[in-house]
Design brief:
heterodimer, A: seven-stranded mixed β-sheet, 11 strands, B: six-stranded mixed β-sheet, about 0% helix, globular
Chain lengths: ~120, ~110
């Protein structure tokens, strides 16, 4: 079975540019999470979708960040404009019933560098 | 909130046992997870505890005490490939919050 698929795997962009990260969750999973990982702050939850609806976006750092889930098989995380401090690994994860008793499965991550 | 504390680093010898402790404070607790993350890779699921007690899975075991807000991950018969970061994560309101991770280094 295909796991969580993320693209791009690596991106280097200049400050001020728009960045769009993409995620395809595991088929049949109804919960989707976007996490950001840095050395300083570890793994932080940015936003959580259930059945394509954003349930909790309290972790989204600021208005420059936005996330959408137009259907059950696709989600995007957009940063506009990007800043050097946004450099991190962005993980998408999915779960069949949220994180209560069922594992969440992570994609391979999108490694973002903003210069 | 859910302050999740675990040691930053641990070192052990191949074949030995290492115990990684995790303490947490949270309301609405739904369960505790342990994940393994090798450098440059995604976290992968190791174990899940929702009731008090010990869950054993091969060389890895995880323990939970809800009243004490305490869990540990026990790694037995350490192998070089076990060198990784181990993340304690608490489930609350259907979300997982992660600790900073414990980097385990296995030496020959």
């Amino acid at each position: 079975d295909a796991g969580v698929i993320q693209s791009p795997r690596h991106e280097v962009t200049e400050m001020g540019q728009e960045v769009t990260l993409r995620c395809k969750p595991i088929s049949g999973h109804n919960s989707l999470f976007w996490y950001r990982q840095t050395m300083m702050r570890g793994l932080e939850l940015l936003i959580y979708f259930n059945n394509n609806v954003p349930i909790d976006d309290s972790g989204m750092p600021e208005d420059r960040f936005s996330a959408k889930m137009p259907n059950a098989s696709f989600s995007t995380l957009k940063i506009q404009p990007s800043e050097p401090r946004d450099s991190a690994v962005y993980f998408c994860a999915s779960s069949p019933t949220g994180a209560t008793g069922n594992t969440i499965y992570f994609g391979e991550g999108s490694w973002l560098t903003v210069v | 909130g859910q302050n999740i504390d675990q040691p930053t680093e641990m070192t052990a010898t191949e074949g030995a046992i290492v115990q990684i402790n995790c303490t947490y404070q949270t309301s609405g607790f739904n369960g505790l997870f342990w994940y393994q993350q090798h450098a440059g890779e995604a976290p992968t699921f190791l174990s899940y505890n929702v009731l008090d007690g010990l869950e054993e899975k091969g060389r890895f075991s995880s323990f939970l005490s809800r009243s004490k807000g305490y869990s540990y991950l026990l790694l037995k018969e350490l192998q070089m490939k076990d060198s990784a970061s181990y993340l304690c994560a608490v489930s609350r309101d259907y979300k997982l919050s992660f600790g900073a991770g414990t980097t385990v280094t296995v030496r020959a």
